[in-house]
C-alpha cells in the first residue's frame, strides 16, 4: 500500500491541537474554572473536526482522480467519504 502524503498545513494544525490538549491538561491540574476548560475542549474538538474534514476531502479528491484514470466508478468512493464524515 502506498504511503499517503498529508498536507503540511494539516500537520501543523494537529500540532496546535496537541498544544491545546496539553494546555487543557495543565488547566485541569491547576484547578481552573470548568467553563474555561470546556471552552478550550470545544476549541480543540473544532480544530480536530476541521482537520478530519480536510484529510477526508483531500483523500476523496485523490481517490476520485485515480478511479477516473482507471475507468472505475467513483460513487462507492464518494459514499465511503460521506460515511467517514458522518462518524464525526
Explain what this protein looks like in three dimensions:
With 88 residues, this protein is mostly helical. The protein is 80% helix and 0% strand. The longest helix has 36 residues. The chain is elongated. The two termini are 25 Å apart. The mean pLDDT is 87.
In short:
With 88 residues, this protein is an all-alpha fold. The protein has helices at 8-29, 34-69, 75-86.
Number of strands: 0
Shape: elongated
Distance between the termini: 25 Å
SS class: mainly alpha
Helix content: over 70%
Mean pLDDT over all positions: 87
Order of secondary-structure elements: HHH
Describe the oligomeric state of these chains in a short phrase. single chain
Radius of gyration: 18 Å
- Name the beta content range: under 5%
Low-confidence stretches: none
Number of helices: 3
Describe the main β-sheet briefly.
Answer: none
Blueprint (SSEs and pairs):
Layout: H1 8-29, H2 34-69, H3 75-86
Could you list some keywords that capture this structure?
single chain, 88 residues, mainly alpha, 3 helices, elongated
